[in-house]
Amino acid sequence: MNTAFLLILLTTNANAMPSVSFVNAESEAQCKARQTMITAIFRNGNITIDQSRCIASDLRFTKYSHNPSSNASRYFWLVDMTENAEQLTSMPDMSSCRSHLKKIENNKKSAICAVTDQARLY
Asked: Among the residues of the chain, which ranges form H helices?
């Protein structure tokens, strides 16, 4: 059985809110290639990538949309990417995420709440 990979990109959107984007990949090599390509595209668009990492993961998401509708669904994630580990936790809304973050921030200073328009695929 092959291990799937997920590219996680953390940026800050135009409203100064942390944003997370996900890119599905079938292999680590494919993930790294997509990471290089997307980093170049974001740089050309003057979008700063705060963090970017390929991880082995069974999580899958809908495709990234460059121009999501203003009434598109939003999904909220608690994202914690340390040097040695990653944790993604789905949250019901940004307020809940921030409340949860306050409870754990003494132990998890690297964790942030981020928004995406990409739905998780089950």
From this structure: 28-44, 94-104
What is the count of structural domains for the chain? Answer: 1
Tokens of 33: 């290639």
For the chain, the maximum distance between any two Cα atoms, rounded to a whole number of angstroms, is 41
Contact at 8 Å (CB) between 98 and 3?
A: no
What is the reported pTM? 0.90
| Domain extent at residue 54 | 5-58+73-121
Q: Is residue 20 part of a domain?
A: yes
Q: 47-84: per-residue pLDDT in tens?
A: 899 999 999 999 999 998 877 888 889 999 999 988 87
Q: In what order do the strands lie in the sheet with 5-12?
A: 49-56, 5-12, 18-25, 111-116, 75-81, 86-91
